[in-house]
Inverse folding.
């Protein structure tokens, strides 16, 4: 396994503003923007323009962002996680099992509407991990 952990920032309705702020600061590119309204997933209309997922890139600087779902709040410390893009079902299952053993599951390992297997777990030391395995690897 050779993976780079990718910072994933979470905002309370200000992800778009934050992305534009980072674009101005770092002169990078905002890509893969998907709103809750774009998703094939039932969400309240007030979330339609909120960002469900987006990426920021500038050379080697790369991170992802989203807004929280309704009734969730952002607290400094829980507003960043580390995302791992994994290579197989076996790998994601192994890491998920190990992390949840002494950690807290935020989202059970499951198939998602975006075509991946995904889980979100806070480890024994408070670090939040987003585990993602894209079933159809894009080359």
């Amino acid at each position: 396994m050779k993976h780079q952990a990718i910072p994933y920032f979470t905002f309370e309705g200000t992800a778009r503003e934050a992305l534009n702020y980072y674009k101005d600061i770092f002169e990078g590119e905002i890509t893969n923007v998907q709103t809750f309204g774009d998703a094939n997933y039932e969400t309240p209309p007030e979330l339609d323009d909120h960002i469900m997922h987006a990426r920021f890139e500038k050379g080697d600087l790369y991170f992802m962002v989203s807004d929280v779902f309704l009734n969730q709040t952002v607290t400094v410390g829980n507003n960043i996680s580390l995302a791992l893009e994994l290579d197989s079902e076996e790998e994601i299952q192994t890491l998920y099992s190990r992390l949840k053993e002494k950690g807290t599951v935020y989202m059970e390992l499951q198939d998602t509407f975006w075509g991946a297997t995904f889980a979100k777990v806070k480890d024994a030391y408070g670090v939040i991990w987003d585990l993602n395995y894209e079933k159809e690897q894009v080359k």
About this structure: The radius of gyration is 15 Å. The mean pLDDT is 90. The first helix runs from residue 15 to 26. The chain is about 20% helix and 40% strand.
